[in-house]
Amino acid sequence: MIPNILTTMRLCLVPLFPYFVFHDNVIAAITVFLISGVMDMVDGYIARRFDMITKIGKVYDPFVDKLMQLTVLVSLTAAKWIPVFAVIIIIAKELAMIVTGAVLYRKNIVVYSTWYGKAGTVVFYAIIFSMIIFRDIMPEAVKYALLWFLVAVMIAAAIGYLIKFTKIAKRENENRETNAREIHSA
């Protein structure tokens, strides 16, 4: 399916970002970052518009999103372009989301992306893009304010997903209990 091919192409872009950051090629790093973001929007649009949504795509696409985001954060922190606090908080949040998603996936429950997850991704791209473009002229206070805003948005998205995970798990438990009662009464 075309969306999964585009997601694979995005996966291939992931190692290019740190390569360009560590070789101080800001234009190439930004280009890779923006191409990845645009491809993410395009593959999602194609999947929804042409009904090409697959179970694997529901897991693969967010995985590649998170991998790119974490790679960007770690690379920019290692290059000392952004402070470490944001990376630690966001990595902890992303790891919790990945573990929860994997547990649900093992139970054949796929949690797809939501508007607040997509909004978090847009905010991430906008802030990181701004911080790369203006890294030499952005005042530290602005940089920290943007990073704290990004952390707040990411945590808000995580809370939204946590609520969604909880509802799905509760529904699954209720379904199992209903099925068990039906078996015993039969």
Walkthrough of the structure:
The radius of gyration is 19 Å and the shape is elongated. 83% of the residues lie in helices and 0% in strands. It starts with a helix and ends with a helix. Helix 3 packs antiparallel against helix 6, helix 4 runs antiparallel to helix 5 and helix 5 packs parallel to helix 7 (140-185). The chain has one domain (2-185): Four Helix Bundle (Hemerythrin (Met), subunit A). With 186 residues, the chain is an all-alpha fold. It has seven helices and no strands.
The 3D shape can be described as elongated
Query: In CATH's first tier, which class applies?
Result: Mainly Alpha
Query: Biggest sheet: strands, sense, closure?
Result: none
- Strand content is under 5%
| Helix/sheet category | mainly alpha
Task: Kindly list the characteristics that best describe this protein.
186 residues, Four Helix Bundle (Hemerythrin (Met), subunit A), 7 helices
Task: Give a brief outline of the structure.
The chain has helices at residues 2-13, 16-22, 26-49, 55-78, 84-106, 115-133, 140-185. The protein is an all-alpha fold and 186 residues long.
Itemize the secondary structure elements and their pairings.
Elements: H1 2-13, H2 16-22, H3 26-49, H4 55-78, H5 84-106, H6 115-133, H7 140-185
